[in-house]
Structures are given as structure tokens and as C-alpha cells.
Automatic annotation (TrEMBL):
Annotated GO CC locations: membrane
Main subcellular localisation: membrane
Organism field: Ornithinibacillus caprae
Key word RNA-binding present: no
Name of this chain's protein: ABC-2 type transporter transmembrane domain-containing protein
Length: 374
């Protein structure tokens, strides 16, 4: 094994940067992708100004509801400050909650509660306005419903009659328990922070798995290069058989991959607060390495192998739904789950079917060739 390591290191001297790049590519690419999407999310928030004419519970409730939206970045200002910032185009729009807002809501009045301002550069004014209006309408409808309930209690002479505040609080509790639409954005495996309402779920380990598939395929191109007749003929004059040489090199690469995966596990846990079962990660790494090795054995041309590696990775990316949701599509075509080597890993399950299949194919290649050479 020592001779194998020395030989491999000698071959790496001319391509050390390439080997290091592809070894760290899954970690680097995943981190850059997550950081880039985070930056986009922050930059795409619409800056708006809110002016509170009164600090009553209902007015503060609307302010809190607007602040909870991940689509806007809210700044609370005075009216003069807000209009100045709007003129400077530092704000996309301004919304002023007038004095007497809560009183008008209690009366069921929905007119002249909020005044809005926009400039000639207010690109997102319409959707933000509709969002604010929806919050106000929600409160007015809730208030009207409370009065209807109070009238019904009076009409049917209930012994215990609830007041307006109790009915409003109960309606909010029911709404929270039976939310009709709730979408989140967080890293899979991470704990969602309080008072945050993210938009979508990124599977950090799923993204890493896609990049790992590509990098593993490209790193095992040595199988094709060293499977040429010129190189294989040299093993006739050595003590080691070609198949022993290849398998020992494969084990060396597998050990190297596992070390890098361990570092990746610690890195993702520290920076993204996400973790995965180590045995699930180990079985996936063994499977993906054996699969890439078998694909390389079946290839004769390095250039075609590179093209096939990118095409195969793209196909697996599409059917995996890591970047684009394909849940409904997968449910209609269930066989795609079985041809996807990443499926069990993405479901945080031990990779079994593809691992066993890869081991069987490796054994068939190894022992069949040994019999021929004998």
C-alpha cells in the first residue's frame, strides 16, 4: 500500500491544484450558493417607512404584522423624516397610520385609516400596498365578526357573555392554530429563529450531495487514463496485478473523501447549524465513490466521460428537486425515485439499494477479470 501512495503522490505533483479544488469543490460551492441566496434575499427586501399616529394595541399589531413579512424592510419614522427619506429615494413607499385608527377599527370603518405615499421610483408600491390593506381588512372584518358574536350572545341570552377584547383574542388564537397558508425558508436541519418568517427550505446537504456527485466523477478520471493498453501492459512486468492496483487506489481515494467529509460535517454544523447522521453520510460517500468508479470503468474516452459526468449530474439534479421543487412530478412518476442515487440520502436515510448494487457490480468486475487473467 505504501508503494501505491507514493505512486499516487508522484502523479499528483503536476495536478495538485486541480485535485485540491475538486476535493473541496462541494464544500466551497455549497457555501457560496447559500451565501449568495442569503444575500439576494436581503437585497430584495423592499424598504418602506411606517409612521404611527398612535401606539394602541391594534396599531402596534399592524406594525408587527408588516414587520413579520420577509418581503419588506420596515423603518419606523416620524412623518417629516419619512417623507424626506422618500424624496431621497431611500424608501420605496411610506405608510402613515392615523390617530384614531383603533377607534375606527372598533366601529368597523375601513376608510381613511392609513395614508400612503410613493415616488416615481416606487417599483414595489402596489404589492406592498395590497399587503398593508389586507392586514387592515383583516382587523376590520375581525372586529365586525366580534360584534356579530356579541349580538348573537345577547339575542340568545347566554349566561356568560364575552366582551369585544375576548372575542378578538380568541379569533387570533384560532387563526394561529388553523393557518391556511404558511411558508418557511430555512436550512434543513437548522432550528428556525424566533420572530422570523423565512420563505423557502434549502437542503444544505442536498446541495452538497449534487456537487459531490460531480466532483467525485471528475476526480476518478484517473481510472480511464490508467486503463489504457499502454499503461496496463506495464503490469505484466510488476509483482502487483492491475486490479489490485486499481482497488487499492480506490480505497485511498475513499479514505481521502471520508476525511474531507468529516471536515465538511464540522463546517456545516458550525456555520449553518445543520447536521446529519454520520452513518447516513458514510454510506452515501461509499456508494457515490463506487458508482463513479464503475462509470469510469465503462468509459473509454476522457472527454466523453467529462461531458457525461456533467450531463448525469444535471439529470440527477433535476429529478432530485434540490434546487427546483418537483414533488408533484415525482409522485406521478415514482420510478424516478429508484433511478436517483441521491434519493435515500436526501430523505436522510441510509443509502442501501444503490450501495448494494454498486458493491455487486464492483465484485463482478473484480472477480471476473481475475478469472480471465489466471
Amino acid at each position: 500500500m505504501k508503494d501505491i501512495l507514493v505512486t499516487r503522490v508522484i502523479r499528483w505533483k503536476k495536478q495538485v491544484l486541480s485535485v485540491l479544488f475538486w476535493l473541496l469543490f462541494p464544500l466551497i460551492a455549497t457555501s457560496l450558493f447559500i451565501s449568495f441566496t442569503e444575500k439576494i434575499q436581503q437585497d430584495t427586501q423592499v424598504p418602506i417607512g411606517i409612521v404611527l399616529g398612535e401606539e394602541t394595541p391594534l396599531a402596534l399589531g399592524v406594525l408587527d404584522a408588516i414587520e413579520q413579512s420577509p418581503l419588506v424592510e420596515v423603518t419606523q419614522l416620524t412623518e417629516d423624516e419619512a417623507l424626506i427619506q422618500l424624496e431621497k429615494h431611500a424608501l420605496d413607499s411610506v405608510f402613515i397610520i392615523h390617530q384614531g385608527y383603533e377607534e375606527q377599527i372598533r366601529k368597523g370603518n375601513r376608510t381613511n385609516l392609513i395614508t400612503s405615499y410613493r415616488s416615481d421610483r416606487s417599483l414595489a408600491y402596489s404589492p406592498v400596498k395590497e399587503m398593508v390593506v389586507s392586514f387592515v381588512q383583516q382587523e376590520t372584518i375581525r372586529s365586525k365578526a366580534a360584534y356579530v358574536v356579541m349580538d348573537l350572545e345577547t339575542k340568545y341570552k347566554r349566561e356568560i357573555q364575552r366582551d369585544w377584547e375576548e372575542i378578538i383574542q380568541k379569533s387570533k388564537e384560532v387563526q394561529a392554530e388553523q393557518d391556511l397558508l404558511h411558508t418557511t425558508f430555512q436550512f434543513q436541519g437548522a432550528t428556525q429563529p424566533k420572530n422570523e418568517n423565512p420563505l423557502f427550505t434549502w437542503n444544505v446537504w442536498g446541495i452538497w450531495a449534487v456537487f459531490t456527485l460531480l466532483s467525485t466523477l471528475l476526480l476518478l478520471d484517473w481510472v480511464i487514463k490508467e486503463n489504457s493498453s499502454n499503461i496496463r501492459s506495464r503490469f505484466t512486468f510488476t509483482k502487483i496485478r492491475y486490479h489490485h492496483y486499481v482497488v487499492k487506489n480506490l480505497l485511498f481515494y475513499l479514505g481521502l473523501f471520508i476525511i474531507v467529509d468529516g471536515f465538511t460535517l464540522l463546517f456545516f454544523y458550525h456555520y449553518f447549524s445543520t447536521q446529519i447522521n454520520m452513518f447516513v453520510l458514510f454510506t452515501f460517500r461509499v456508494m457515490i465513490t463506487l458508482l463513479a468508479f464503475i462509470i469510469a470503468l465503462l468509459s473509454k474516452n476522457v472527454y466523453l466521460f467529462y461531458c457525461g459526468a456533467f450531463a448525469f449530474t444535471l439529470f440527477i439534479t433535476v429529478i432530485s428537486g434540490v434546487f427546483l421543487p418537483v414533488n408533484g412530478f415525482i409522485q406521478e412518476i415514482t420510478w424516478l425515485q429508484y433511478v436517483n442515487p441521491l434519493h435515500q440520502f436526501l430523505s436522510e436515510e441510509v443509502t442501501f439499494i444503490w450501495l448494494v448494487g454498486s458493491i455487486i457490480l464492483l465484485c463482478l468486475w473484480y472477480f471476473r477479470k481475475e478469472k480471465v487473467d489466471a
